[in-house]
Write the structure tokens for this entry.
Amino acid sequence: MKILLLEDDIILADSLAEYLELEDFEVDIAHNAQEVYNLTFHNNYDLYIFDINLADENGFEVLKNLQNADDNTPTIYISALIDIKTISEAFNIGAIDYIKKPFEPEELIIRIKSRFSSKEPLKYKDIIYYPNKKEIFKSGKAIILSDLQLNLFDTLLKNKNALVPNYNLLEFFENPSSNALRVAINKLKKRLDLNIKNIRAKGYILEEL
């Protein structure tokens, strides 16, 4: 996947790009709107990751201008702006996700993988999972999970053998708490016979032993 990252904080941009490249993404960096226009004129991208507050044009204006040129590349916004009005505007423009700063690089990776999952089934032990259809088969038999457990399983499996932070998993709860998360994870483990490891105060890892 080829990504264009628009971020005027040079240190943050370089850090995020390095982290994305470790996950085998190809990344170009733009520090202002004009660099975005120059890069998109010569290159095609699979994903845009845009900051909002910039010195020249803001990230909303940049995306609108690209869309006016028939560029409908999926876009994730990253921003320190956390008011509902701004977040709502981002999605109204057409963003597929919005991540509030500060955030851990792992969160960005998780969001990207969740949005661009492979159409191929994912396998774990005797489980076959079809992400696009949200269908689970264990030993050839269909398994029905609640929306909560399905979201937890989907996220853990797509990030197999990697730590998924607690705060990412808590987003799936109407009334999030560490106790509710622990109970839900334990139920999921028993239901599907999963090797889920708890990293105290950090998160969970679905291990493939």
Summary: The mean pLDDT is 92.
